[in-house]
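This entry is retained here.
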Amino acid sequence: MIKEITEFITKKEAKILMDLIDQNAEKSLVASGGKEKNILNESVRTSYSATLSSTNQIVKDVHQRISDHLGIPMNHGESLQGQRYEEGQYFKAHTDFFYGSNYDQNCLISGNRTYTFMIYLNEDFEGGYTTFPRLEKTVNPEKHKAIYWNNLENGEANYDMTHEGKEVKKGVKYIITSWWLSLIHI
């Protein structure tokens, strides 16, 4: 189930987070089952990403707010990641949990990604919807709105949460993504 929260962050927080993404963004990578942990694969993902440092007080505050909302200890959360999607950019349908050799590379110590928590920082763009094809659901990006979902159901992969960042048709889309870990193995 996908849950939505309006006005999860403030206008000031969104502005600071977008600035941090712009300052630190690099071409987005995707997990690989090969020897490299991540690869550049523009047939799947064309956005820019930035790992946001928890030494920044706004980043720390937003991460803590997510932790509090989910009821999951902070040490189970990966670093916040910001994404920037420019015109024509997208992220094809994918899951946020790992399986197979990607699980072995990414999850043996930390466990798999149980929850995904996404925050839309702006809405002054066209396109860029988040879709969940298996659920036939589309989430309309609204500034400061958060959505979240459970990637695992009773420790099993929840393929219904396969999602896609549709192509941005005009403008620039900014989001924050937060993944939460557990030692449940799939």
In short: Residues 11-24 form the longest helix (14 residues).
